[in-house]
Specification:
Length: about 230
């Protein structure tokens, strides 16, 4: 028995220091997980329960070489593309209802990614009470660098997260400022869906989100977890 159309390829993210790839199953993103970003978006930063949205696996764009930023076409249907710099968590296993104190046992490694957002489409959807999918889950909306295995970097709970645009810092914070930590996020999300190997979790963005125009070069890093670099054309 075969497929009636060509099966889509598995999306793979390079694993630092190896020739191996991390196979992407699903992408989950955490909304408003830094207090300062919640404020800049007009929301109360109190520790409300986390919420999540998704991107398709093929939204991934590999942007791992800071010396040669990946060229990405400016997406259609928007005049207000925004950057959101994030720590990415790569899962090696999963399950449902994972306890907080067991959550990190399921992590393969960490990386650096951008949750690119067509803000005008997202805001329009919010105003009309509609889903955000076309504002968040569009083609090439998830640039990412390499995955750094836990064996190399441990489980970072502190450290700088920063994004520069054309050499000027736009976003800068510390992982310690996450409202919901990585193990808390994994635990809560596993109460909503059954997590599995290959899942990526974009853990939220600090304040400083802003518009990207054609010609902009975005260069971000998280201490110990690599870089992400791209130019919009």
């Amino acid at each position: 028995m075969g497929y009636v159309v060509k099966a889509p390829p598995i999306v793979g993210v390079p694993v630092h220091g190896t020739s191996d790839l991390f196979p992407v199953r699903r992408i989950f993103c955490v909304g408003r997980n830094y207090a300062a970003h919640a404020r800049e978006m007009g929301h109360d930063p109190d520790r409300e329960p986390p919420f999540f949205f998704s991107k398709p696996a093929d939204a991934i764009v590999i942007c791992a070489d800071p010396r040669n930023p990946t060229r990405i076409p400016y997406p259609p249907a928007t005049r207000n593309l925004h950057h959101e710099m994030e720590l990415v968590v790569a899962m090696k296993s999963g399950g449902a209802e994972i306890p907080v104190d067991k959550a990190l046992e399921h992590v393969f490694g960490y990386g650096v990614g951008l949750d690119m957002t067509r803000r005008d489409l997202q805001n329009q959807a919010k105003d009309m009470g509609r889903p955000w999918d076309m504002g968040k889950g569009f083609d090439q909306s998830a640039p990412i660098g390499e995955i750094y295995p836990v064996a190399q970097v441990g489980h970072p709970a502190k450290g700088t997260i920063q994004l520069d645009v054309n050499g000027k810092t736009r976003q800068k914070s510390d992982l310690g400022a996450l409202i919901w930590s990585v193990p808390e996020t994994i635990s809560y999300l596993s109460g909503l869906v059954t997590l599995a190997a290959g899942d990526l979790i974009y853990s939220g963005t600090p304040d400083g989100v802003a518009a990207v125009i054609k010609g902009d070069t975005l260069s971000g890093f998280v201490d110990g977890c690599g870089t992400v670099s791209c130019t919009y054309i």
